[in-house]
Amino acid sequence: MRIVSLGLAAAVAALSLSSPSQAMAYKDGKCAVTVPDGWVISKSRAARPDKKIWVSMMDAPTSAEIVNVELGLKAVKVSEDGRFIVLVSTASYGGLTNKQYHVVSKTSPSCVADVTAPAGADEALARQIGMTLSVVH
To answer: Domains of the chain: which residue ranges?
Structure first.
């Protein structure tokens, strides 16, 4: 397995963790992200043990296809650079308002990491996890 775009060392730095032993990879199909150690990984997502933050991923042939789906679901594009397009939306689960960060890789094939967190303090961590997205070949 070869991971393109972001190595574990860069992911550890992005998540402000002190060592790789505090991070773990979550892979789904052609997509991978790095999450803090101790997260619970299931068939459909990786989640913090308290289940307040979670990430799921999917892939598509192009980033344009993913962006069109996310925009159709009322996500708003907030940034774009050479590697990623970042969109944000809000959703309500259990009476709480959550932010959803949709980080789309500008690769072919493309991946999206949908990271959901309660609005507020955990938003920065959600975005950081999304930014560790990579395509696995």
So the answer is: 3-136
**Is the separation of the CB atoms in 135 and 35 below 8 Å?**
no
Instruction: Quote the CA–CA distance of 112 and 120 in Å, as a whole number.
Output: 22
Q: Work out the percent of the chain whose per-residue pLDDT is above 70.
A: 84
- Angstrom distance (rounded) from CA 41 to CA 97: 23
Q: What is the pLDDT of residues 53-85, one digit of tens each?
A: 999 999 999 999 999 999 998 999 999 999 999
d(CA 10, CA 22): 13
* Rounded distance between C-alpha atoms, residue 34 and residue 132, angstroms: 6
Which sign, positive or negative, has the C-alpha torsion 101, 44, 82, 74? negative
**Residue bearing tokens 């775009």:** 5
pLDDT of 5:
37
Model confidence, pTM: 0.82
For residue 26, give both structure tokens. Answer: 């979550």
User: What CATH superfamily is the domain 3-136?
Assistant: Mog1/PsbP, alpha/beta/alpha sandwich (3.40.1000.10)
